[in-house]
Amino acid sequence: MTCDSYGDARLAAVYDALNPPGADTDFYLDLAGDTPLAILDMGCGTGWLATELARRGHRVIGADPAGAMLDIARARPGGERVNWVQSDAAHLDLATRFDLIVMTGHVFQVFLDDATTLTSLQSLRRHLKPGGRLAFETRNPAVLEWQDWTASQTQTEVVVSGKRVSVHYDVVDVAETIVTYETHFAFGPTDRNVSIGRVRFIDAARLGQLLIGAGFADLTWFGDWDRSALGAGSPEIIVVAGQARGRPQSRPAPRRQAAKAG
Length: 262
Description:
Layout: E1 2-3, H1 9-12, H2 15-18, H3 23-32, E2 38-42, H4 48-55, E3 59-64, H5 67-75, E4 83-86, E5 98-103, H6 114-126, E6 128-139, H7 151-154, E7 156-160, E8 163-175, E9 178-188, E10 191-200, H8 204-213, E11 216-222, E12 236-243
Parallel strand pairs: 1-10, 2-3, 2-5, 3-4, 5-6
Antiparallel strand pairs: 6-12, 7-8, 8-9, 9-10, 11-12
């Protein structure tokens, strides 16, 4: 059976076991700091980061288009501290304005073209307070990470509700900047599910242009969760962006990075 893993309740339940908190989580918690802020976790998924931010005293809204993920978020300990909203970034329409908006878990890569990316970024900018910041990450295309998304290299087993689930990934198509891949779930010998996902690998130069075009400025770039500088071989492209005042301006984005061979 082929399905959307984020829209299927049983597959969504596997997400936390596959994606435990790590250095990326620490980065965003540190970015939020200790002073209470109004924070939007866009693409919040199962809500671990949103609830942890709320536990630390921030006023948090978690938004995600997948109802199955939000069901898990609402039910998790501390979920009652967060206001959960079902929406994607492009169609977000909230009265609240935020000091900080974060998009984690490489959710930015689901924006597959420039038009969708611009619309989503403009929507998020409208939801920022003056002086507010947007922070997110995307995988560095120069590293060609998708070449490692094979069954042999990604095979893993997790335990969910006392049952073992085997998971692996397979790339089925690479078309310019878009990678199409399958996630294979095996709950038993005859109980298998396959979900299909598509993600965009955008370079820092084009990303900077889109951010400026959407009205952001003061772009700060990192190449990994230790806040190291963005370079050709950095695994991540992490950006923290502020709102432009008047005409969009920014320090230049890093130069376009050539993909390594092989």
